[in-house]
Amino acid sequence: MNVIAETPVLIVGGGPVGLGLSLSLSQLGTPNILVEKDGGTALVMLTKGGGHNERSMEFFRRWGVRNEVVAKAMPEDYPRRTVFCTALNGHELGNSPEPPWRENSYSPERRHKIPAYLFDPILARAALATKLSDIRYNSRFEQLVQDDKGVTAELTNTVSGEPFAIRAQYIVACDGSASNVRTSLGIPFPGKDLGYSLSAMLRIDELERHHSLGKTERFLFVGTNGSWASMSAADGRGLWRFNLLYSKEKYDLDNIDIQTYLKRAFGKQIPYEFIRMAPWKRSQCCADRLRAGRVFLAGDAAHTTSPTGGLGGNTGLGDAIGLSWILDAVVRGWGSPGLLDAYEVERRPIAVRNSTMSTRNFKGWMSGGTGTDFSKVLDETSEGEAARKKAGREMAAMLYPEWYNVGIALGYRYEGSPIIVPDGTNEPPDDPSEYIPTSRPGHRAPHAWLADGRSTLDLFGRGFVLLRFGGSPPDVTPLLAGTSRRNVPLSVVDIESSDIMKLYERRLVLVRPDGHAAWRGNELPPNIDDLVETIRGGKARSSATVNGGSYKRKAVAV
Question: pTM, whole model, 2 decimals?
Fold first, then answer.
């Protein structure tokens, strides 16, 4: 087969994770090719959600696309509360108020919501603008062959039908939950089947004029058997996504009367424009391994989550950040091959953590709290009113971690990673609704505002950064010499602020390109070479063979 191109990294799949990975690699300086079977980016107005948490917004800040995302996202003053009701023109059971944004505290960014058809092209344009990302549409992956020096991907041009091949040092599968790449490698994808859902995109201008529940982001519709549908503002400008929450069988589009469901949800006739609808499968799955030799899995190809909480896309973008610096380091030569193993060790537990929380949220949507009684919520009696209030309180309590999830967004950590140097401190609680800033190795380095108006997060992303705190910081010449010998990129930043030093807890904190702390201390360790070898992956011994092999890793159940 004709090999038409060679590249350090080939990305299969042009959704947000693939595009984000391409952009991140390019900004680090590693050329890459992305192949996508469709004829362009976001050609169809998909029914997918587009909620991006604080951490993802920090990534966009790093990539230089934050302002464009905010400009096209749901207006910042749009009410973000969730209302539980029997219908828009029925009874309100209760609501979850808008989660507060702790300005200047945990993050320089706040959550935003932007539909995929507007978001994905932003990443595509930014990636192409680097001149190091090569996006090739109408290119369908067929199979791959890998050896000790690289991988050859066999593809088909979906317009001409002609086969072709691309040779790469590494391939990353970002081709969705039904990933052809993962399937071709025979990697198991176990998990939980959470049933089928159906989403319909609607255009409704000024919906709040047609009901008395107030302007809000999301409605959860409740019947005598619990929640049965939801409706969420997709862009805050009249585009809504209506969801039927659960069916054991896949919805048949030829035999479903969506108007009947909408009438039940609205409670009266409301004018709307129907755009499109699509059935989809809800699941919680995670691949047994995220690496097979020179091939890696990311995003939905690696793990799936219920969209309850918006953690799927955010987790996938975390994969892109976590993998991009590792691949860049190995391609450039300063990263040891052992660095590649750290991707799975670090990211797979986070995928399981986040998907488990999403499933918990979904069960809360369906059943409210434990023992919640919905049998009388439609009754036009005082007893029915009391039942509605009780069910509303229980639903709000059960779903609190979904709406208030700063801990999920910012509190994940890479415990047990072979490229992190632990300092012996105890792991803080991993609470979905609470975040404790810490520079403890493995955690996201905390945000603080610098004297020049930048965030500490703006210092990270282009190599390792050693933060030195205080008026008389320790001498770090040995570390500079040690990293220089291995060509590990390192810059030193001095920060005199006592408040930031207190936040960071140590006088020296070494931060990785992905913004996570790798090591910390008040003085340099006695064995500098040992520290340098650890952070560059030289002490992580790979047990993976080219054709898949086995991995020595901490077992994490799905």
Answer: 0.94
